[in-house]
Write a structure and sequence with these properties.
The structure is a single chain. The protein contains 5 helices and 6 strands. The protein is α+β, with helices and mostly antiparallel strands and 159 residues long. It has a single domain, classed as Trna Endonuclease, Chain: A, domain 1 (3-Layer(aba) Sandwich), CATH 3.40.1350. The strands form 2 sheets. It has a 4-stranded mixed sheet, sandwiched between helices. A two-stranded antiparallel sheet has the order 1-2. The longest helix has 15 residues.
């Protein structure tokens, strides 16, 4: 049996899912085509293992722990912050503090554990071109909701 392409095996044990880095790179590839031209977005390089000298230098320059991975400058002076996590990943206490600060200041903030989740938030924020926006028509369970709503209901004409 073949494993799905998005998984790799380490040590011959169980499959390991996509890393946060790979999910974020996939989103950036998508945004090249999907982002509205007036939107400006960028990554915040505040994670990773660094030599202590480099980490000290970056901290002195203003890098702060907990800041979301991506920033989106939106119309009307709005800002959206997107925290990317791999499936099963969780936020650190400083990331939760940053999320709470965004809420306090009225900034948009979201946590996405897949490209699809990120696209849903970016659609809500109006950051994507209309052809790339996700609506309920794109959700895979929309047929299920139709089935459930038609059970037990009768139309005005019965045979």
């Amino acid at each position: 049996m073949k494993r799905p392409a998005k998984f790799r095996v380490i040590d011959g044990s169980k499959p390991v899912g996509l890393s946060e880095h790979k999910i974020q790179v996939q989103l950036m590839d998508y945004l090249v085509y999907a982002a509205r031209p007036e939107i400006y977005y960028f990554a915040i390089p505040n994670q990773g293992n660094r030599h202590i000298r480099n980490a000290t230098k970056m901290k002195a320059e203003g890098v702060r722990s907990g800041v979301a991975d991506l920033c989106f400058m939106l119309p009307a002076g709005q800002v959206g912050w997107l925290e990317m996590k791999k499936p099963g990943g969780s936020m650190s206490p400083t990331q939760k503090t940053f999320r709470d600060r965004c809420a306090l200041l009225g900034h948009k903030w979201a946590l996405a554990k897949s490209v699809d989740e990120a696209i849903e938030y970016l659609t809500k924020w109006g950051a994507l071109k209309p052809a790339y926006q996700r609506t309920t028509l794109f959700k895979t369970n929309h047929l299920e909701s139709i089935k459930h709503s038609s059970k037990g209901e009768t139309s005005g004409t019965q045979a």
